[in-house]
Amino acid sequence: MSLCRSILLTTMCILMALLVSPAVAQDETRVKARLVADTVAVESGSTVRLGVHFEIEDGWHIYWHNPGGAGLATDVQFELPDGFVAGPLQWPLPIAFIQSEGIPGYGYEDSVVLAAEITVPPDIVISDLGKVRAEVSWLACKGVCVLGSAEIEVSLAELDEDPVFRTWAGQLPVASGTENLPFTLAVTGGLSEGTITHWLRWSGEPGAVEWFPSPSEALEIGEVRIRTRGGLTKIDAEVKSRKGASGSTAELSSLCVVTTEDGERRGWELTAKLTND
Amino acid sequence: MKHIMRTLIIALVAAIATPAMAGDGVSVGDTAPAFTLADSAGNQVSLSDFEGKIVVLEWLNPDCPFVQRHYKAGTMKNLAAQYAGEGLVWLTINSTNYMDVAANAKFKAENDLPYTILVDQSGKAGHLYGAKTTPHMYIIDGAGTVVYIGAIDDDPRGNKGEPTVNYVSVALDEVLAGKSVTTAETKPYGCSVKYKK
């Protein structure tokens, strides 16, 4: 058994090594992944954005960090030189789709950039900079599903400011707790009621409202109903805890996304308490 | 034009997704609902045929890469063999809309499976249990109560290395020891069950 595992591991290592390519990779999933940066030069003590730009073939999708009722979150792991620190992966607003009857899915079509802020240590010698590498894996589906993975790398001394970052920040949700939101939020219900309701009072009619629960091992989200009348949106979500599962059940994080009549999408992260503790 | 389509899709997703999810499936503690399905040899098999026994239900789609990984590793077959001596019944259910008796018989033969594959092209049993992913695992104890629902293990990407936790194995050990299942529900992972539209 251990011999078989060693052979398997060696084979996988060889295959992974073959997949390593400078900055871009593609597999049979028809998803192209390349490393992108928002700067031309890394400077001591600065912060740069480094991301993976996924180009997804027409009709296929990959997944948000909560894939929905099935699927698998896209994963990006950066390997950085000593002293560099990567912040959390930032997820642009997802779209919702039906994976199969009764099974919602959340993810991305066409293209998306999953990026993180990288803190560059002070007192680095730019000429000594090595390469940055990203281990990327995804599940791509279009009726059938195909797992994809790649290791992509780029030399930190050869970065280029990628145009995808010109509009990227506008695709991110507004963080929870931010002031001057276009709505006021009230939350009723919780785990003991089996339903949590987010009430959003807008200053006018908001447009089409969507709601995306954040990933959770411990919480199961069931039926979701969204109704908007005038300037009031009511989002009812069935919620229950998974018995014995790991993770917190004290709070539910989620994302509210509005699409206006002219097609503009904006999103806000919401946090709601699920218990009275 | 694209944004009009997008708005229409949002409305459609909201209209289709939500009612179908309502109260779908079973919960831990429920009495396992009865079903009768044809197996890959064409025989009718009912859950009630195994009254008093511990039953594992495994949702299958041979086209799903997560299922393929577990069948290459022998996860399901080894687990079924490990507990066969304890009288465990392993029933694999395929709710993939396009896989008929012959397709399931072929998969069973190719993989030399000792257990039954039940053919659920209509998706009736899948919806009855609320199966969402392949694989999606359920354990029914000897009293006919659902005692585990969720993932096969804690390694959705298959790259965790050892040790992984096989939730089904842990739960079966607890059931066989007469204990209640500690981790009774986990988030299932895999492809969506390809239900008939």
Automatic annotation (TrEMBL), chain A:
| Keyword annotations of the record | Signal
Which InterPro entries does this one have? DsbDN (IPR028250)
Q: Where does the record locate the signal sequence feature?
A: 1-25
What Pfam families does the annotation carry? DsbD_N
Tagged with keyword Signal: yes
Q: Where is the Thiol:disulfide interchange protein DsbD N-terminal domain?
A: 40-152
> What is this protein's record name?
Thiol:disulfide interchange protein DsbD N-terminal domain-containing protein
Give the organism the record lists. Candidatus Sulfomarinibacter kjeldsenii
TrEMBL record, chain B:
Q: Could you list this entry's UniProt keywords, alphabetically sorted.
A: Signal
Question: Which SUPFAM superfamilies does the record match to this protein?
Answer: Thioredoxin-like
Question: Domain of life, per the record?
Answer: Bacteria
- Cite the Thioredoxin domain residue spans from the record: 26-177
Q: Which GO terms describe its molecular function?
A: antioxidant activity; oxidoreductase activity
Q: Tell me the first and last residues of the signal peptide.
A: 1-22
Q: Which Pfam families match?
A: AhpC-TSA
* UniProt keyword Ribonucleoprotein present: no
For this entry, the protein name equals Thioredoxin family protein
| Organism name | Candidatus Sulfomarinibacter kjeldsenii
